[in-house]
Each structure stands twice: as C-alpha cells, then as structure tokens.
User: What shape does this take?
Amino acid sequence: MVRYDSNNLKELRESKNWSQEEVAKKLHISKNGYAKIEHGESRINMERLKQIADVFGVDVVKLMECQDDKDKSTGIICLIGDSSVNNNYFGDSLSEIERLKLIINHKDELLKKEQKDNARLEKELARLVKDIMKKDEQIDALMKKLTD
Assistant: This one.
C-alpha cells in the first residue's frame, strides 16, 4: 500500500473542473470509492496510484508529495516493501534513491501480476493442447473407420 497526499487529488480534480463522479468514471470505480480515496479514507496500491496519476496527467510522485504551500513541496511519505519488510520515507525532498526504490517497487508489482497472468495462460494453453490432441485422436479414429 502507498501513502499519498489526498489534498493533491482534490486540488488536481478541481483545477480540471471535474466532479468526483467524472474522475470515478475515468478510473472505472464508484463515485463513493473515489471519494474515499480523495478523502484519504482508502488505502491504495501503487498500480491504482499510477492509474490516478495517468488520469490527471501527472507523475505518480506528485501525488505522494505533501504540500504545506502550493508553491513548495515539503516532503514525501510513502511505504515501500513487501509483506515482510516495510520502509517508510519521510523527508524534505524525494532523493534519487527513493525515486528508484519507488520505480523498483512498482515494477515488482507489475512483474508479480505478469507472472500470475503467465501462469494462468500456461494452464489455459495446456488445456487447449490437450483438447486438440483429443480431437486429433477422434479424427484419427473416424478416418480409420472410414478406410476400413
């Protein structure tokens, strides 16, 4: 799960003159679901944060920056890691190492999803090959009957 500054979401939405319902439609979620995200009442993963960033046309890091002043970014709060290790970062600016860790974490999430998809597709392929082999056997049996 990733921590983000919900004030950034509201400011971005209002700057585009969009309603919460319009943003929710763009994200393919309910209005209440988006409202909870915008109010900071919902925990989201990096993939959802990236989707939100894409809708607003901003870098995902922008959504994670804490804003005390509209012109000055005062820091970032984010959670990086897996289920066994959590690393919290707090600071005045996002360093290059922290950016790279965010990128790696996001890539790891995408890789896990890809691996699950690949496993599912491999099972489906094996099933289809088995079905084809069965059909081939049936065709061979029919051909044999016709030739006898």
Q: What stands out?
A: The first strand starts at residue 65 and ends at 69. The longest helix spans residues 96-147. Residues 6-115 form a domain with the 434 Repressor (Amino-terminal Domain) fold (CATH 1.10.260.40). The beta strands are 65-69, 72-81, 86-91.
